[in-house]
Amino acid sequence: MKFSVDRVSFADPVEKMLEVQMPLIQRSSFERAVANVATKGDTDVFPFPFENHVFHDRQDEIVDLLQVMSQDFDGSLSRTPITSHSSLAPVGYAGYRWATQIDPLWNAYLLGIVESLAPEIEESRIGPDEQTVFSYRYESDPSKGMFKLDGWKGFQERCNELALRHAYVVSVDIADFYSRIYHHRLENALHSVDNPSKERSKQIIAILTKLSGGSSYGLPVGGNAARLLSELVLNQVDRLLLAEAHAGEFCRYADDYRFFVNDLQSAHRCIGMLSEKLMRNGGLSLQKAKTRIMTAAEYQMITESQQQGDPGTAGKFLGLRLHFDPYSTTAVDDYERMMAQISEFDILSLLRDEITKGRIHVSLTRKLVGALQYMDEESRVQAVVSLLENVETLAPVIPQVMLAVRQCLDQLDDRAAADGIQATVRGLVEDEHYIAKNDLNLAYIVRVLAASPSRPNERMLIRIYGARHGYSMESAPNIQRDILLALAKWNVGYWVSDRKNYFGTDHAWVKRAFRVASYALGDEGSHWRRANRPEPGSFDDVVQKWAAERTNISGWSIPV
User: Fold this and answer.
1) pLDDT band at 209, cuts 50/70/90?
2) Nearest to 295 by CA among 433, 162, 463, 170
3) Three-class secondary structure of residue 42 per DSSP
4) How far, in Å, CA of 182 to CA of 233, rounded?
5) Closest listed residue to residue 503, CA positions, set 473, 486, 480, 487
6) pLDDT at 465 over 70
7) CA distance 495 to 480
8) For the segment 288-340, what is each residue's pLDDT rounded down to a tens digit?
9) Which helix (H) or strand (E) holds 171?
10) 293 phi and psi, to 5 degrees?
11) ∠ at Cα 204 (201, 209), nearest 5°?
């Protein structure tokens, strides 16, 4: 018997592996993960990395790479170790939480593998028809984002409805929720929705263990993968509460539970019952400072003042849904509708009222600052100057403030005004202001300075690059990455050229950024790239080819 074997080319190992092996994770899951990161970003805590642009422009190549990683997970961990950066993220005026940004490729991988389990996770949860759990309900339609958009609104409306039918409302939050989730509890929950091999569960736990430095607890704050996993962890507690006759009626959004009862004894029973279930089934506890029993009338008064104010008031503005998707088929109509809503409010006046209080309403101020991008130039500049003059009062929302400043500078034609704004921001660093000492805030400040090339900004960024960031006395790779890209964008050749001497000892994120920055060095950069080629088929290879292609496009500049 003779066998005929077709001639096979092994020139493309990615294509060959995809052809031979059945994927552990369907391509559609990785496609959705990459598209989500490309359009929505990887986190709501850190500034978006430049690699998001690569995801947008090279989606098919990134998906191919992720599928190969899924078929040789252990080998991928060895060849491309998981890198991350953790930082203290300010909470309120004197508190912090631990936040972690994951390497863009591994972030997409984690999101893809969790997304592949998302339908099963959603199916295992208490159904939407129960009107009980409202946070991060999975959206099965890939064109509509990862989650349904009406969760928070539905939570508020249901709570108001239940408050009208009961005498008391109990409001509680879980303490340090994401950072205290035990991996073995999560693994058990994952096993209930994974296929018999449990391979996806094993990979998720392996990634989380790497990100937590070997600890057996903690989810990275700010990403969609963590949101889906956290909902799965709380599902057991939700179902136990729903089955308990003494729990009364309750609603949950993320780590926020609200119970609705008719007497104080039942109110205290709910707090004790939830505390017991959380501790026994997840090692979690409630925030004592946020545990509160209110009369229904008191609760309604608070929520009405926040959500149902008179036209033009802060309460009315807080109830607005300022979501605009430029990729929507109805983008033009959506934008006009949103602008009509915003025009009802005097944003500057509302913002001024918050600043003069001394301690801001965080949710309202964050929303007001975000709305500045829709104002005319003169009003926006006026608002930005006011924000920078009151950074201490705005300490809980400094990332949002710096985003608004950057957006203003990107669209500002008045150079004198721009220079004044930049000088004020530089002053925060020069004076070693405590706002700028936090490395998360500093990362956003660097993005502001990167908006405008100038000698003062150039010198400031170079000094920041070589300094220690935050309170750990270490350099933050995300800050160094952004400074390198900014100075390359400005063609600061003397400094970028010098950085190639340190390439071997740089952080992986900085190395990847230098591959992009090297295109600002002309022939010198070409010689360097020939001597320092990335591994064929690697993420760095995709990034370098992307940079080579983009630099040939007229008008393109390095994104930072």
Assistant:
1) very high
2) 170
3) coil
4) 9
5) 480
6) yes
7) 13
8) 989 999 999 999 888 765 555 566 677 777 766 666 665 566 666 666 777 77
9) strand 168-173
10) -110, 125
11) 125
74 residue type, one letter: D
Q: Per residue in 412-432, pLDDT tens? A: 999 999 999 999 999 999 999
Between CA 341 and CA 335 the distance in angstroms is 10
| CA–CA gap between residue 169 and residue 251 (Å, rounded) | 11
Tokens of 219: 């989810």
Cα–Cα distance measured from residue 148 to residue 140, given in angstroms and rounded to the nearest whole number: 9
CA–CA gap between residue 50 and residue 284 (Å, rounded) = 36
Residues facing 91 on adjacent strands = 95
pLDDT (tens digit, 9 = 90+) per residue, 259-278? Answer: 999 999 999 999 999 999 99
| % of the chain surpassing 70 pLDDT | 91
pLDDT on residue 309: 55
Nearest residue to 244 via CA among 273, 280, 282? 273
**E-assigned strand segments in 192-308:** 249-253, 256-261, 292-295
Q: How far apart are CA 255 and CA 101, in angstroms?
A: 21
Q: Which amino acid is at 431?
A: D
**Backbone angles phi and psi of 384, in degrees to 5:** -65, -45
How far is Cα 109 from Cα 70, in angstroms, rounded to an integer?
A: 8
Mean pLDDT, rounded, for 376-383: 91
Residue listed under structure tokens 């403030």:
401
Closest residue by Cα to residue 54 from 411, 559, 416: 559
How many Cα atoms sit within 13 Å of 20 on the Cβ side? 12
